[in-house]
Amino acid sequence: MEEKAIYLKPPVWLPIAVALIAGGLYVTGKYVETRHMDQFAISVAGSGKVSAVPDIATLNFGVQTGRQKTAAEAMKMLTEKMTAILDALEETGVEEKDIRTQYLNLNPAYDWRDGKRVDKGFEATQSLIVKVRDLDKISDVLDAAVRAGANQAGSVGFTIDDPDVLREQARAEAIVDAKMKAMKLAKDLGVSLGSMQGFWENQGGYGGGPIMMRAEAMDTKAGGFGGPMAPPIPAGEQEVVVNVNITYRIRK
User: Fold this and answer.
1) What are the residue ranges of CATH 3.30.70.2970 in the chain?
2) For each of the chain's 252 residues, which pLDDT tens digit applies?
């Protein structure tokens, strides 16, 4: 039996269709590749710091009455001493709006004997937080308070009355810092910066903690300690720090 080979000639349109499909895949691949490139991003950190001299001092001091026979006697003594302190503060130029009570306590006083509670009256305590806007008067205010009857341990802290302006300056520096880093990084990578995709900010605190002291040690006449009235308390400088992180989309 004779074998015959059959040859089929492909249609004229087949090569054209294959070329179109291949070309379409190539174009689609390039589109996907470009679109994928647009999804890349770089994230950079920037920091800004502004230094300023504090313009507010915050003082903390108060009165403890010690044990009194009744609650009424304890509160009466506390009221008299605190009234004298407030009058003394007013004489130094401290305004009423800059004085507030931190806490006010009236507690029973007692001892323990042979496992039994023995009542010893009552004790009252009040603490004040005072803002001093003239830093040259810090020592005068402390001395006046102690002379008027303040006998609780106190502290002195420094702060800036309007930190928002300084934060804005520090933030602007941080953003510029981040942008410069992003531009350099993009140049090193051989790409271009696109639109901003994210922003994060963290604000730092101020430097320097409160200065602790014993109230009675600040007065030569209150208790006869013989020490200085109140030492010089320099405010120094404080820093406002803002850190940012910016994310940019990149273009090929």
Assistant:
1) 55-161+207-234
2) 454 444 455 565 555 554 555 555 444 444 444 445 556 899 999 999 998 888 899 999 999 999 999 999 999 999 999 999 999 999 999 999 999 999 999 999 988 888 888 889 999 999 999 999 998 899 899 999 999 999 987 788 888 888 888 999 999 999 999 999 999 999 998 999 999 999 999 876 554 455 555 554 444 344 433 344 556 666 677 888 999 999 999 887
Phi and psi angles of residue 221, each rounded to the nearest 5 degrees, phi first: -100, -25
Which tokens hold the place of 239?
A: 């820093």
pTM listed for this prediction: 0.60
Contact criterion met (CB below 8 Å) for 216 and 146: yes
Region 39-51+165-204+244-251: CATH code? 3.30.110.170
Q: Where in the chain is the domain with CATH 3.30.110.170?
A: 39-51+165-204+244-251
Fold of 55-161+207-234: Alpha-Beta Plaits (3.30.70)
Residue 245 structure tokens: 């992180």
Rg (C-alpha) for the chain, rounded Å, is 37
